[in-house]
Amino acid sequence: MSILAKKLWRTVKTTRVQFLAVTAVVMLGITIYISMSTVSYNMLRSRDTFYREYNFADYYFHVIKAPEGVLRQIESVPGVTKATGRIQKDVPVIGDNGERATARLTSYPLPMNTELNRLRVLSGRLFEKYPAGSEAEVLLDPRYAAATRLAPGDTVKIVAEGRQIPLTVVGAATAPEFIYPMKDAASIIPEYGSFGIFMVPHNQAQEILNLSGQVNQVVIKIAPGADEKVIADRVESILEPYGSLASYPRRLQLSDAVLGGEMDQLKIMARFLPSIFLGIAALIEFVMLGRMVKTQRSQIGTMKAIGYNNPQILWHYTSYAVLVGLLGAALGSLAGVLLASSLSKVYAMFFNLPGVISGVSFQALLYGFILSIAVGAGAGLTASRGVLAIQPAESMRAEIPKAAGNIFMESWSWFWHRLSATWKMGLRTVFRNRFRTAVTMLGVTFATGMMVVSFFYQDTVDVMIDEYFSQKYDYFVRFTEPVKETGLLSISRLEGVTKAEPVFEIPVKIYYEGRSQEELLTGLRPGPGMQALTSPDGNPLALPDEGVLISSSTAKK
Fold it and tell me: Per DSSP, what are the bridge partners of residue 517?
């Protein structure tokens, strides 16, 4: 080891407590960066692979019902490479104990090798077009199967077209559109025990729902580079005679939107949180090295006297900060990879990504080391620049004290004379060392800010839940088809029911000045009701005599 390397090692040993403290701060920042970046990378890789291998559709179209022959018209539209027609409808499920759930019955044409949104069977086997038994076969999404403890060979009953229909469970499967199965956008989290995806052969779904030769949903694949909006308009015009209900691109499909939002949040956290820790570490290193240069003034003069030049001495002190960055990056990378593995398992619990969400992002590791070393080198060079002004002869004597005049508070005699000597010394130190004070205040500000943000996030979730569950009703009953209001009498006469109100809901598309937005049009009775209407500032609202009320988010769009 060279002489300067030995001196650096002795400095690390004598300041090991401070050295380890700063290393821990750097390690925390790099751990967060590596873990979040790795999880985001693994989820992106797993999602893209799954979408590509199982041919995720680019656009969705919902209709009341249309003949299967319309698919040939849609595939003839320039830019459409493939169109798949199917049936999708929510139907009630009747459990053995009388409990009810909702099944999203979704049909899949067989064979499905060239179709869109193909299934990946996770357990059991694929259903058959014409099963040997009398009952139709069904594949369940794995979360619903686990929550209801249904296994291959079990029978589950649904209600369709006014009759109970038994389905034989043959396994569990998932598809690109059901990575995060939610009933609708109003659901905060998936309800695995009360809502599930039921995947059946297309011909069996047509028979169950009395839609022979019909489809009520069309999904298409668009050629790369084609104009998505133009194609969507053409397809909508073809489907218009059949009762076009809704259309939306892949990015607005509920499962993909939730997954994409979660990945965007991971990327933001991977950039924002590490910058706070690394910034605090840089400030601490700056203060430490600046003080070290002042205390080792005579040693620096001696090194210059025996032949060491400014760049060598400057690099010697900068190496202290670089060493902190290297050790922090190494420990942070190891901890980040381990934390990423645990986080990946947590995400695997919520998302039905069939690929293993694991792996190491070497790009994130490389960037972590570069970032940590760059921050350390920048702080070290900035703090160590004081060695350039030290001359060998002058370093043999103590540094000349800075000129110290009165601070502005001393002119307030009525205030200054009431302070004790301790307070006077403290205030003079604060205002005569303004940069050091600013750095210290900045560190305290960041630490306090992080605490406030964490508490604020918790309070925000509490307020959101309180607002979401602030409605006055206990149950919201939805029917698969519109029913007469007189049907409320049978509900209101149930034991324990004190009040029942009718609600009318229908999906619509709002058009305004060339913009459009899909919304749920809700019809309520005038006057006070169990569904509370509030303005953005929290004040209660009454239904207008004419026109509609729309949400503030829709109004801004």
Answer: 510
